Amino acid sequence: MGLTGIQIFKMLPKTNCKECGQPTCLAFAMALAAGKAELAKCPYVSDEAKAVLAEASAPPIRPVQIGNEERGFKIGGETCMFRHEKTFVNKPGFAIYVSDAMADEEIDKKIENFMKYRYERVGVLLKADMFAVKCESGDAGKFKALVSKINEKTDATFTLMSDSKDVLAAGAEVLGDNKPLLYAANKDNWSDMAELAKSAGCPLAVKAETLDELAELTQEIQKAGVKDMVLDTSSRTLRRAFEDQIYIRRLALQKKFRPLGFSTIAFPNEMTDDPFKEAVIASMFVAKYAGIIVLSEAEAHNLFPLTVARLNIYTDPQRPMMMEEGIYEINDPDENSPVLITTNFSLTYFVAGGEIEASKVPSWLLIMDTEGLSVLTAWAAGKFVGDAMGIFIKKSGIADKIKHRKIIIPGYVAVVSGDLEEELGPEWEVMIGPREAAHLPAYLKLWKAD
Amino acid sequence: MTIEIPKRTYKGAIRTITLGAGDKAVTVGGETSLPFYLFEGERPNPPRIAMEIWDMEPEDWPEHALEPFKDVVHDPALWAKKCVEDYGAEMICIQMISTDPNDKDVPADQAADTVLKVLDAINGVPLIVWGTASHEKDTEVLKLICEKTHGKNLAIGPVEEGDHKAIGGSIIAYQHTCISSSPIDINLAKQMNILLGNLGVSDEKILIDPTTGGLGYGIEYSYSVMERLMLAALTQEDERLQFPMINNMAKEVWKSKEAKLTPEEDPLMGDPKRRAITIECVTAMLLLLAGSDLLIMRHPESIKIVKDIINDFMAAN
Question: Among B32, B57, B175, B248, whose CB has the most other CB atoms within 10 angstroms?
Answer without folding.
Answer: B248
